């Protein structure tokens, strides 16, 4: 596995659906946002179909699969219902994430090491159907090793603790988290896993992560959708793309 090629940007459009659902209507349309993101240079679109359907709906997934010209990264919990939906649609990528009804957003990485047998059997049909399976995990060697053992092709490292420490001015802790992410990116790559990263990244925090040569893709959503209120969606994505490229090229 080489480091050649541009660092990919996946734009998560979940919170376009959050705004739509606040009024219970059809506007704004996540598919329209996905197409704007595609035109602005996004390499893929990420959407998380939660058990409680708090933002993305089943109809959104139908529309994204039919209307996108770039790959869909389908985030989902490891449940029978979500597996059936993924097997029906066969998206380019499936990212398995932990999910709790009471959480506002995904709070941490998946516990793979304690559930190896179940997760290995869970992802096998998805891989057989042609989807690339990613596991969303903390920068922890035990979890990375377990992800490799169960047959995942990709891991996505949870950058939330790093981003939170930066936002709260805990810079020593931020740097410790960044060191762990750097070390585990290299370790996962050495095991033959493709490495992605995401959660909480913004213009201030993206460049150190984008500079890791082993990272092939960043998935960024909430910040981009929020920034789009002020800049517009295309320019917000364009600035993120610029910072990513600057970090990688530098």
Give the topology:
Blueprint: E1 8-12, H1 14-23, H2 30-39, E2 44-48, H3 58-67, E3 72-76, H4 80-89, E4 93-96, H5 116-128, E5 132-137, H6 141-150, E6 154-158, H7 160-167, H8 171-190, E7 194-198, H9 206-210, E8 215-220, H10 222-231, H11 233-249
Parallel strand pairs: 1-2, 1-8, 2-3, 3-4, 4-5, 5-6, 6-7, 7-8
Protein name: Pyridoxine 5'-phosphate synthase
Site (Transition state stabilizer): 156
Catalytic activity: 3-amino-2-oxopropyl phosphate + 1-deoxy-D-xylulose 5-phosphate = pyridoxine 5'-phosphate + phosphate + 2 H2O + H(+)
Give a short overview.
With 250 residues, the chain is of the alpha/beta class.
Describe the structure.
Helix 5 links the parallel strand 4 (about 95) and strand 5 (about 130-135). By secondary structure, the chain is α/β, with parallel strands linked by helices. Strands 1-2-3-4-5-6-7-8 form an eight-stranded parallel barrel, surrounded by eight helices. Helix content is about 50%, strand content about 15%. The model has no long low-confidence stretch (mean pLDDT about 95). It has one domain (about 10-250): TIM Barrel (Alpha-Beta Barrel), CATH 3.20.20.70.
Biggest beta sheet attributes: 8 strands, parallel, barrel
Class from helix and strand fractions = alpha/beta
CATH class: Alpha Beta
Please give the alpha-carbon distance between the first and last residues: 21 Å
Tally of domains: 1
Question: Please, how many helices?
Answer: 11
State which percent range the strand residues make up. 15-25%
What's the count of strands?
8
CATH homologous superfamily placement: Aldolase class I
């Amino acid at each position: 596995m080489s480091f050649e090629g541009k660092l990919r940007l996946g734009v998560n459009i979940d919170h376009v659906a959050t705004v739509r659902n606040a009024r219970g209507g059809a506007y704004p349309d996540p598919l329209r946002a996905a197409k704007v993101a595609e035109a602005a240079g996004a390499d893929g679109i990420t959407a998380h179909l939660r058990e409680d359907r708090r933002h993305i709906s089943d109809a959104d997934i139908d529309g994204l699969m039919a209307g996108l010209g770039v790959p869909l990264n389908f985030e989902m919990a490891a449940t029978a219902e979500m597996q059936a939906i993924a097997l029906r649609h066969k998206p380019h990528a499936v990212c398995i994430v932990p999910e709790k009804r009471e959480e506002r957003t995904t709070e941490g990485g998946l516990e793979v090491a304690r559930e190896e047998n179940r997760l290995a059997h869970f992802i096998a049909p998805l891989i057989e159907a042609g989807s690339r399976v990613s596991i969303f995990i903390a920068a922890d060697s035990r979890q990375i090793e377990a992800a490799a053992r169960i047959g995942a092709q990709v891991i996505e490292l949870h950058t939330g603790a790093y981003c939170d420490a930066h936002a709260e001015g805990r810079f020593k802790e931020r740097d410790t988290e960044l060191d762990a992410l750097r070390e585990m990116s290299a370790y996962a790559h050495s095991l033959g896993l493709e490495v992605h990263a995401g959660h909480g990244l913004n213009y201030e925090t993206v460049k150190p992560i984008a500079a890791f040569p082993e990272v092939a893709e960043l998935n960024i959503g909430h910040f981009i959708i929020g920034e789009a209120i002020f800049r517009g969606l295309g320019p917000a994505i364009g600035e993120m793309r610029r910072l990513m490229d600057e970090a990688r090229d530098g």
